[in-house]
């Protein structure tokens, strides 16, 4: 509601933006009696770790920089006539990585798993790791010609003797 109030106060210059904002569902904010600027309202709505999973769509660089500092908030902006979803901020990536590592296996279980592997002898030695040597291959089978088969059957002479030709005499 604060964003629409701000767009109405700015006049006819941002009438198109106001129409676009009115198409979307309105969310109630804590300061509906005395509206504040749109950027402060949006920041207050995502303050506590974005519990409602909001996306922020803005062209304001200051607001987008403030949003990028908080993890887990997707950012949209417009380039020419297309809406673009910005890549996750480094804070968001670090936050997700931290969550994933904590959720997989707790630290005390990692230690006990390591001890059990050592006890059973399943731990790989660093010195044992060797790369397999690549050996040269043969010729390309697609580039090789097939060998010709000789047709020799019983009762037939080899092909050299079989083909005796008569020479023609020329009359002059």
TrEMBL record:
Could you name the domain of life of the organism this protein comes from? Eukaryota
Fetch the InterPro entries from UniProt: Fcf1/UTP23 (IPR006984), PIN-like_dom_sf (IPR029060), UTP23_sensor (IPR057776)
Residues covered by the UTP23 sensor motif region domain: 130-149
Mark out the compositionally biased spans (Basic residues). 162-172
Q: Where found, per UniProt? A: Nucleus, Nucleolus
Give the family per the record.
Answer: Belongs to the UTP23/FCF1 family. UTP23 subfamily.
Q: What does this protein do?
A: Involved in rRNA-processing and ribosome biogenesis.
By what name is this protein known? UTP23 protein
State which gene encodes it. Answer: Utp23
